[in-house]
């Protein structure tokens, strides 16, 4: 039965979660300095990092989109997840030994030593653009949800924009305040909170759907296994795992291979993700973290797609999208959780959504600050600034990145439509290709490159990739899907090869 979600309960839940975050921040930042901020003093327990990384890998966008996408692609998401396991193994065996051997704070320092200053700064810039755009979209999605709960009545556009800007400012201010001192040390422990609430939100939604449908565990399994996808564009059963249509973006082989490269690029070559791994005391601990994360992430993602099938069955039982006021698939999880399964599930969903963005945004801020301070301001080698001065500078940089997020999110609201948001998010994903090409060229060849050419290659590769995918879809009906990342990295690799220096 449909129910309205009380504003005061939402505010209470939001306040309680925020207080909990600040308590963790306080406990993790006593006597914290730059070392704690950048590397967590190299004391992070690997089981904590492993568990928290699962939540850090799942943004607020993923939190609502993966269950919704089951209606659009059955369980075809799972081969991508299986590929993640291979990606984590590559990181553990190939990248982590390199990072620990060089004792890196910023992983892009490797490219500086391997190729030169321009390559180093190009990689850092590429990462920063990607992180800024990607994190801004993730925060925007959550702020929109928070904003929807604010009673506004009839407001002019300017006043409405002002309310949104205020909600955004409060949200970002809270993120800044709990991360500005402890940095990665705080993020590691808040990631644990994030993962826990996301899992609880999914499990309790599954449990209460079963309760509402009067299903036992066996009934649920039978219902999901036997349910046919009503979407005529997809067909088959929800539990279909493998799409063997080679021209499809969800082809199982393309998904699996792409999953490996997506993980290597978006985890192994991402400063915000690897910063947590590098906070472990030694290489063996960091590798244990990777192996554990690979197992947990498969289990958690399976529950997400299972929930997607259950939501589709539940919505159909209640009369379909129109009867429940659902416009698109991404709205299934929020609508069912907040309006049909009781206040408790609604609260868990909202906290799960908020928790998916709080640490993600905090992690983005921390890694951006780290990259700028280490890669551009050369904190590790500068002698003209004492520790106190470096700390003041780091806090200022942290604040400036927070303000930049604010500006971008307000612009997204002004331009507000799904096409713009999706475009920005997609642009962010394209930037990981050059990082993949740069690191792989550095690791698998012994060539130097013409350092000054790197920025041009890093821009040309994504543009060529967009062109190739557009032509493939227009003339061949072939969608690269997640394989875009591989093609992007390959084009970067070829570009670097063409500009190699023979010694």
What does this entry look like structurally?
The protein has 503 residues and is mostly helical. The chain has a single domain, classed as Sodium/glucose cotransporter, CATH 1.20.1730.10. Helices cover 75% and strands 1% of the residues. A two-stranded antiparallel ribbon has the order 1-2. The model has no long low-confidence stretch (mean pLDDT 81).
Attribute tags:
single chain; 503 residues; mainly alpha; Sodium/glucose cotransporter; two-stranded antiparallel ribbon; 1% strand; globular
Predict the CATH topology.
Sodium/glucose cotransporter
> How far from one another are the termini?
73 Å
- The number of domains: 1
The tally of beta strands, per DSSP, is: 2
Q: Treating each run of at least 4 consecutive H or I residues as one helix, how many helices?
A: 21
The unreliable regions are none
- CATH architecture classification name: Up-down Bundle
Helix percent band: over 70%
Tell me the strand percentage band: under 5%
């Amino acid at each position: 039965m449909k129910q309205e979600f009380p504003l005061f309960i939402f505010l209470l839940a939001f306040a309680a979660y925020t207080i909990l975050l600040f308590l963790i921040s306080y406990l993790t930042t006593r006597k914290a300095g730059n070392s704690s901020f950048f590397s967590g003093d190299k004391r992070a327990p690997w089981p904590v990092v492993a568990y928290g990384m699962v939540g850090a890998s799942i943004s607020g966008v993923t939190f609502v989109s993966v269950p919704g996408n089951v209606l659009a692609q059955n369980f075809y998401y799972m081969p991508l997840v299986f590929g993640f396991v291979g990606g984590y193994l590559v990181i553990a065996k190939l990248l982590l030994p390199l990072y620990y051997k060089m004792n890196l704070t910023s992983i892009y320092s490797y490219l500086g030593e391997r190729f030169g200053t321009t390559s180093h700064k190009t990689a850092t810039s590429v990462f920063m653009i990607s992180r800024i755009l990607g994190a801004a979209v993730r925060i925007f999605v959550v702020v929109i949800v928070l904003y929807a709960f604010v009673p506004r009545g009839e407001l002019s556009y300017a006043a409405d924009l002002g309310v949104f800007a205020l909600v955004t400012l409060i949200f970002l201010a809270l993120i800044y305040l709990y991360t500005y001192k402890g940095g990665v040390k705080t993020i590691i422990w808040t990631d644990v909170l994030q993962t826990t609430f996301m899992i609880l939100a999914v499990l309790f939604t599954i449990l209460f759907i079963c309760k509402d449908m009067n299903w036992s565990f066996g009934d649920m399994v039978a219902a999901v296994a036997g349910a046919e996808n009503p979407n005529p564009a997809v067909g088959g059963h929800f539990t279909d795992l493998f799409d063997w249509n080679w021209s499809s973006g969800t082809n199982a082989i393309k998904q699996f291979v792409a999953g490996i490269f997506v993980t290597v690029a978006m985890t192994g070559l991402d400063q915000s993700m690897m910063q947590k791994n590098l906070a472990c005391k030694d290489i063996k601990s960091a590798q244990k973290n990777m192996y554990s994360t690979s197992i947990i992430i498969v289990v958690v993602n399976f529950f997400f797609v299972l929930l997607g099938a259950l939501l589709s069955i539940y919505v159909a039982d209640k009369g379909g999208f129109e009867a429940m006021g659902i416009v698109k698939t991404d709205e299934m999880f929020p609508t069912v959780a907040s309006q049909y399964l009781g206040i408790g599930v609604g609260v868990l969903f909202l906290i799960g959504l908020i928790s998916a963005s709080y640490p993600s945004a905090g992690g983005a801020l921390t890694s951006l600050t780290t990259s700028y301070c280490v890669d551009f301001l050369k904190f590790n080698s500068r002698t003209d600034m004492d520790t106190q001065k470096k700390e003041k500078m780091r806090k200022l940089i942290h604040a400036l990145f927070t303000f930049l997020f604010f500006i971008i999110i307000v612009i997204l609201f002004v331009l507000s439509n799904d096409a713009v948001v999706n475009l920005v998010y997609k642009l962010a994903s394209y930037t990981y290709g050059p990082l993949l090409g740069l690191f792989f060229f550095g690791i698998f060849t012994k060539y130097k490159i013409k350092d000054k050419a790197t920025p041009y290659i890093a821009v040309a590769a994504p543009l060529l990739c967009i062109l190739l995918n557009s032509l493939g879809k227009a003339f061949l009906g072939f969608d690269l899907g997640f394989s875009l990342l591989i093609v992007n990295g390959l084009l970067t690799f070829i570009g670097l090869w063409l500009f190699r220096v023979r010694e």
